[in-house]
Amino acid sequence: MKNKKVETVVEDIYKTISVLGAGKPIDINDQEIDKFGELMKSALKDWLTPRAKQKPTLRMSNIGKPERQLWFDINSAEESHTIPPATMIKFLYGHILEGVVLFLTELAGHTVTDQQKEVKVKGIVGHMDCKIDGEVIDIKSASRFAFQKFVTGTLADSDHFGYLSQLAGYEKNEGTEHGGFLVINKESGELCLFKPEELDKPNIDVKISNTKKIIKRKLPPKELCYAPVADGTYGNYKMGKLCIYCPHKFICHKDSNDGKGLRVFKYAKGPAYFTTIIKKPNVLEITDRYAKTTS
Question: How many other CB atoms are found less than 10 A from the CB of residue 96?
C-alpha cells in the first residue's frame, strides 16, 4: 500500500472495488467510513450555505476563461444573475462525486494530501483540490461528452473553463510539473487520469500578467469568445451554445443585427439567440422577454 504512483490510480481503484461485483466485501474500518461521511457532510453544508455574492475578482479558478467574458465579469455593472435550481442540483452532485473519487483513491492505497490548500501566484489566489502521491491533481466530474476530452487528451483544443491555467497555477505554487486531472464520468461512473503535456499548459506568469492588463482596459477585447454559428441556409446566424448561459450575452452582442442587439426566438428545445437574421424564423419572437439594458 506504500509508495503508490498516481499513474496507476484508476487501475488501482478498479482493482480494489472489483471484488464487490463478485459479491465479496471490502474490509474497511469505521474510522474510514466516518471520514467519508464527514466529507459528504461538508459538501452538503457548503452547498446549503453559499457565500454572499461579491464583486468578481481575478482568481486561479477564472484566470483561464475567455478574455472578453472575463473582462465583462470584472467590469460589467450588470447585477449578477440568479442560478437556476437545476444548476444548483448539478453543483451538489458534482461536489459529492468529487468526494467519492477522493474516497476511492484512498481506499485503493494512494495518498491524498493538501486538500483545499491556498495557493498564490503573482497575487492571484486559488485553492487546489489536492495532491495525490505528491502530484497536484484536480478532481473533476464531467458529462459523457466532456469526459472524452480527458480520455483522448484533447482538452487543450477546447479548454473553455481554463482548467489548464488552473493546473499550471497550482503547480507553479507547489514547484511540481507532473500533475493532472482525475475525472469521473457522471453518467457511466468511468474514471480517467489525464496528465497534460507541458506544452499544453500555459506559462502562468505570462498568462496572469497579460490578463491583469486586459481587465484594466476601458473597453473589452474586440474578439468574441465564440463566433456565431450558421442557422440554416438563408444567412441567419445565432449565438453558439457556449454563450447561451453567459450573463453578459446581451451587452456583449449589442452590435448584432445591425445594432439592434440579439433577437430571441422560442423553439421547442429552448430560446435561440440570433445575431444576424436574413429570413425571420417561423416561430414566436420573444426578444422583449429576454432583452437586457445595455446602457
Answer: 17
Q: Check the CA dihedral 47-189-86-70 and report its sign.
A: positive
Q: Which set of grid coordinates corresponds to residue 107?
A: 481506499
Tell me phi and psi for residue 281, to 5 degrees. Answer: -60, 145
Domains of the chain: 6-211 (3.90.320), 229-290 (no CATH)
Q: What phi-psi label fits residue 82: left (phi over 0), alpha (psi between -120 and 50 degrees) or beta?
A: beta
Query: How far is residue 59's CA from residue 70's CA, in Å, rounded to a whole number?
Result: 11
Residue of 119, 210, 106 lying closest to 166 (CA atoms): 119
pLDDT in tens, 6-57: 999 999 999 999 999 999 999 999 999 999 999 999 999 999 998 767 778 9
Q: Tell whether the torsion through CA atoms of 291, 229, 220 and 169 is positive or negative.
A: positive
d(CA 190, CA 10): 9
**Pairing relationship of beta strands 118-121 and 229-231 according to DSSP bridges:** unpaired
Distance, in Å, from the CA atom of 256 to the CA atom of 274, rounded to the nearest integer, reads 8
How far apart CA 261 and CA 273 sit, in angstroms, is 10
C-alpha to C-alpha distance for 154 and 202, rounded to whole angstroms: 15
Q: What angle do CA 100, 104, 106 make, to 5 degrees?
A: 120
Per-residue pLDDT for 69 more than 50?
yes
Model confidence pLDDT, tens digit, residues 200-224: 999 999 999 999 999 999 999 999 9
Q: CA 295, CA 293: separation in Å to the nearest integer?
A: 6
Neighbours of 211 (CB within 10 A): 22
Find where cell 430571441 sits. Answer: 264
